[in-house]
Write a structure and sequence with these properties.
This protein is mainly β and 97 residues long. It has strands at 2-4, 9-10, 14-19, 31-39, 45-50, 55-57, 60-66, 71-81, 86-96. 0% of the residues lie in helices and 60% in strands.
Length: 97
């Protein structure tokens, strides 16, 4: 469900995050709510995105994230569809100097 625009992320860059919510059959679903939490390597919260921060098109939800510190970052996504099914997913990203 979580995709980040590029493999190599460097400090100061802004990258697109793409959410592609699907049901158990792989069919696209419409999100009712989404919260994205971006944590710095020291564990502090860097930013939070909500549904209004995303652009929806073709079953994908796209927004931008910026990285100001090198190290391993954590992205946590909590997404709820129109049937009130909630999915939580986390991904770690390595940000290079």
């Amino acid at each position: 469900m979580i995709q980040i625009e590029a493999q190599d992320i460097h400090v100061g860059e802004t990258k697109r995050i793409v959410l592609t919510p699907t049901d158990e059959t792989g069919a696209a679903v419409t999100l009712q709510a989404v919260s994205v939490y971006l944590y710095r390597p020291d564990g502090t919260l860097a930013s939070t995105l909500g549904l209004t921060d995303f652009t929806a098109s073709g079953g994908k939800y796209t927004a931008s994230l910026s990285f100001d510190t090198p190290g391993t970052w954590r992205v946590r996504v909590e997404a709820t569809d129109q049937l009130n099914n909630t999915e939580i997913e986390e991904k770690q990203l390595v940000v290079l100097p």
